[in-house]
């Protein structure tokens, strides 16, 4: 096996996916920055969820808001719903795995808050259930998906923002999701600090 050639292919595919994503995602991403910043400036908060690599992404994003990204600014209100093993295991044990995020959204979400819902397939049932509760709570959903957007795409309302990466491979989609999250952090910091 020619590992160098495989590695080269992966890099090339990742670069191509990022270029294709820029074409379709720049405008909705700018809108997502506006939505998140508006919520934070109105005492709202961001709840983030996802499975596997997307759980790591949810945590990564929440840490960058609560602590810092690249600029000095006050801490921002964000919670990853993927981190409390007691809460997650008890909900999964007593109810169902698809409720692990939804119950947390019901407990913590208020009108004006944002749910950052991350799923490369757009079909993870626990993320979908969280979206339904977020809508009941009058929260805005920002969905990070890929492929066709799956069932999440069908659930989004007019106030929500869909950032669907135009790719089929989970790894490529996740690589763009991370870039999207850093663009969100950068955009929020710029708006909050009035950077030209
Ligand atoms: O990171 C990876 C694959 O790159 C995996 O851990 C992946 O996130 C998991 O299989 C997830 O369960 C996939 O869920 P989703 O993205 O379809 O919502
Ligand atoms: Zn992964």
From TrEMBL:
Binds 1 zinc ion per subunit. PROSITE patterns: SIS. GO terms for cellular component: cytoplasm. Pathway: Carbohydrate biosynthesis; D-glycero-D-manno-heptose 7-phosphate biosynthesis; D-glycero-alpha-D-manno-heptose 7-phosphate and D-glycero-beta-D-manno-heptose 7-phosphate from sedoheptulose 7-phosphate: step 1/1. GO terms for biological process: carbohydrate metabolic process; D-glycero-D-manno-heptose 7-phosphate biosynthetic process. It comes from the Bacteria. One of its GO terms (molecular function) is zinc ion binding. Pfam families: SIS_2. It catalyses: 2 D-sedoheptulose 7-phosphate = D-glycero-alpha-D-manno-heptose 7-phosphate + D-glycero-beta-D-manno-heptose 7-phosphate. Keywords: Carbohydrate metabolism, Cytoplasm, Isomerase, Metal-binding, Zinc. Residues 36-196 form the SIS domain. CDD domains: SIS_GmhA. The reaction produces a racemic mixture of D-glycero-alpha-D-manno-heptose 7-phosphate and D-glycero-beta-D-manno-heptose 7-phosphate. Catalyzes the isomerization of sedoheptulose 7-phosphate in D-glycero-D-manno-heptose 7-phosphate. Belongs to the SIS family. GmhA subfamily. This is Phosphoheptose isomerase. It comes from Denitromonas halophila. The lineage of its organism: Bacteria, Pseudomonadati, Pseudomonadota, Betaproteobacteria, Rhodocyclales.
